[in-house]
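Re: that chain you flagged

S.,

Sorry for the slow reply, it's been a week of failed gels. I finally had a moment to sit down with the sequence you sent. For the record, here it is as I used it:
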Amino acid sequence: MGNVVYDGLTFEPFITREKIAARVIELAQELRRDISDDNPLFVCVLNGSFIFAADLFRACDFPDAEITFIRLKSYEGTSSTGQVKQVLGLNENVEGRTVVIIEDIVDTGVTAVELRRLFEDNNAKSVKMVTLLFKPSSLKCGKEPEYVGFAIPPAFVLGYGLDIDEKARGLSDIYALKKD
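Prediction finished late last night. Pasting the structure tokens below so you have them in one place:
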């Protein structure tokens, strides 16, 4: 696992695929323990969380769970724009259901607040958030996710679904922007 280069930026190994796989199993066990609903709705936030969501959803193995997708955009390049745009909306009825939001990364919390509000305004029974990565020191609003794969420092990361201008999503490991 060596460095990779995208758009002239060098990224160094950060979290291996083996550590990710082990943590996904642990998160699935936590979710199965905590959610007793017969029919939770998992909401995968595209595009970044699709790989994590697939792995987590299979590992949870809820017999009657459903999964759906929503697409939001708040990043350009390596920076958050501070604004959340809904690109692909939600069509499922969430009233009276437990909603499990699957995020790739929670940074400032702006997107997380918007997502929670969306489901709460539509009378979800409860809203839980599971994120692969969380930057506690970057959180500006909202609350911490209920389920966190890895708490990380405020570095720009990519791989395992996370991207830089839509590139590098297919990397199996997670890489962090190398500091000079």
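What I noticed first: The CA atoms of residues 11 and 177 lie 4 Å apart.

Talk soon,
D.
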